[in-house]
């Protein structure tokens, strides 16, 4: 497995990844009505700081790729803080292709961001996951994330907010 910053080189692999993640209900993809090509152009634009919606900041995206160049997972690092980021999505967001879950992809992606990502002004990042996502909770905790709060979002649902420091140990 290798990890690379999202670029035009991955545009051939992105549509299948996008469609599978959307079909699996990944929130990042499920709310968009865009085609995979349009959505991917937005990913590239947002990395460059172009065409950012209100409340968004430039966002670097990396992919975990298999030997054939297929995307196994993605991680996004939002480069700044806004109320939307602090309350809704955190500085780091990631997902793993359903067929690649349990293979350590999320942990490798998070370790990559720890080593290569630019920290926020206070030195760390906020990561948010739902209380029913035990796999993500384990990944964040193993990488040194510290649980800050659990916030109810509705009946039977809560968001867990973790503070996460970069690490240069990898």
From TrEMBL:
Its EC number is 2.3.1.-. Pfam families: Acetyltransf_1. Residues 1-170 form the N-acetyltransferase domain. It is an enzyme of class 2 (transferase). InterPro entries: Acyl_CoA_acyltransferase (IPR016181), GNAT_dom (IPR000182). GO terms for molecular function: acyltransferase activity. Keywords: Acyltransferase, Transferase. Gene3D superfamilies: 3.40.630.30. This is GNAT family N-acetyltransferase. The lineage of its organism: Bacteria, Pseudomonadati, Pseudomonadota, Betaproteobacteria, Neisseriales.
């Amino acid at each position: 497995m290798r990890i690379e910053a999202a670029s035009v080189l991955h545009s051939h692999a992105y549509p299948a990844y996008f469609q599978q993640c959307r079909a699996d209900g990944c929130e990042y993809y499920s709310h968009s009505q865009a085609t995979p090509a349009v959505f991917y152009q937005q990913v590239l634009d947002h990395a460059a700081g172009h065409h950012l919606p209100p409340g968004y900041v430039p966002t670097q995206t990396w992919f975990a790729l298999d030997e054939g160049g297929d995307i196994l997972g993605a991680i996004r690092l939002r480069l700044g803080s806004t109320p939307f980021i602090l309350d809704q999505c955190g500085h780091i967001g990631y997902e793993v292709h359903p067929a690649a879950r349990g293979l350590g992809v999320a942990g490798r992606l998070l370790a990559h961001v720890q080593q290569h990502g630019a920290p926020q002004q206070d030195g760390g990042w906020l990561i948010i996951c739902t209380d029913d996502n035990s796999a993500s909770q384990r990944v964040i905790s193993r990488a040194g994330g510290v649980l800050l709060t659990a916030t109810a979002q509705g009946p039977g649902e809560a968001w867990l907010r973790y503070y996460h420091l970069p690490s240069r140990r990898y």
